[in-house]
């Protein structure tokens, strides 16, 4: 088990590829500080999805809470030829409803709540923000679906097909750079499988280096907190009809 800050793993990229993935060595990458941290430019962990998902033999996962982290770690321990990477933020542990899935399987997402029209497809720490945004919107009469993606590689193709049948808009959410990240992986998969959505919105960190500041404050500035997500949904809630 290699426990390391997401940003520091960048320095070991060659070893990840040549000494771990090519040789199919049983190594688990536990990527701490994955996302935004108060230390600024050098310490934000905003690139690990992009630099790892292109490497063969990797499995990328991110837990929604502490209970799911334990389940993912046990799943990672069972792998012998794949290299699992588990990313998690420097943040308080969220309080979310217990999982109803009896078994955690590689590449399988979790639907937390069912709505219509708009689906929030959230990865890792963004699940909690999406859940709280959905609760706010529900009180306003706007019902959205919330999915805990769990995996950025491989993605749950079945969930994506299911969502496309009764949602016009898919919103991907990640605490990571938008370029090459989770949202990019979803768009690529939709294109490869010819899965239609009238609109796909990718919410994440824009293409610039982020400055210093408390994680909560930077999330707010980027519109990635629960209130910012809710506002994005309000703008698109009735923009397009549900596909038949």
Structural class: alpha/beta
Shape verdict: globular
Q: Count up the helices.
A: 9
Taken as a percent bin, the fraction of beta residues is 15-25%
Q: Mind summarizing the main beta sheet?
A: 5 strands, mixed
Low-confidence stretches: none
Q: Could you spell the SSE succession in H and E letters?
A: EHHEHEHEEEHEEHEHEHH
CA-atom Rg in angstroms:
17 Å
Give the number of DSSP strands.
10
Mean pLDDT: 94
Tell me what you see in this structure.
- By secondary structure, the chain is of the alpha/beta class.
- Helices cover 35% and strands 21% of the residues.
- It has helices at residues 6-9, 13-21, 48-53, 66-77, 126-139, 157-166, 182-193, 215-222, 226-236; strands spanning 2-5, 29-32, 58-61, 83-87, 110-113, 117-122, 145-148, 151-153, 167-177, 199-205.
- The chain is globular and about 50 Å long.
- The model has no long low-confidence stretch (mean pLDDT 94).
Could you write a compact summary of the structure shown?
The chain is an alpha/beta fold and 244 residues long. The protein has 9 helices and 10 strands. The strands form 2 sheets. Strands 1-2-4-3-8 form a 5-stranded mixed β-sheet. A 5-stranded mixed β-sheet has the order 5-7-6-9-10, with helices on both faces.
């Amino acid at each position: 088990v290699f426990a390391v800050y997401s940003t520091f793993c960048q320095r070991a990229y060659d070893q990840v590829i040549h000494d771990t993935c090519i040789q199919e060595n049983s190594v688990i990458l536990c990527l701490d500080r994955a996302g935004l941290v108060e230390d600024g430019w050098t310490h934000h962990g905003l690139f690990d999805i992009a630099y790892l998902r292109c490497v063969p033999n990797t499995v990328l996962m991110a837990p929604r809470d502490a209970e799911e982290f334990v389940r993912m770690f046990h799943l990672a321990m069972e792998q012998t030829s794949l290299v699992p990477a588990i990313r998690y933020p420097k943040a308080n542990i969220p309080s979310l409803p217990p999982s109803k899935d009896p078994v955690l399987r590689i590449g399988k997402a979790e639907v937390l709540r069912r709505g219509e029209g708009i689906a929030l497809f959230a990865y890792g720490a963004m699940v909690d923000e999406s859940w709280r945004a959905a609760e706010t919107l529900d009180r306003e009469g706007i019902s959205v679906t919330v999915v805990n993606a769990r995996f950025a590689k491989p993605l749950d193709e079945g969930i994506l097909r299911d969502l496309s049948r009764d949602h016009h808009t898919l919103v991907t959410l990640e605490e990571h750079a938008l370029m090459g990240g989770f949202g990019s992986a979803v768009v690529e998969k939709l294109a490869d499988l010819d899965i239609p959505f009238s609109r796909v919105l990718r919410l994440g960190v824009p293409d610039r280096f982020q400055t210093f500041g408390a994680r909560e404050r930077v999330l707010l500035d980027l519109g990635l907190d629960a209130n910012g997500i809710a506002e994005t949904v309000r703008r698109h809630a009735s923009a397009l009809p549900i596909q038949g």
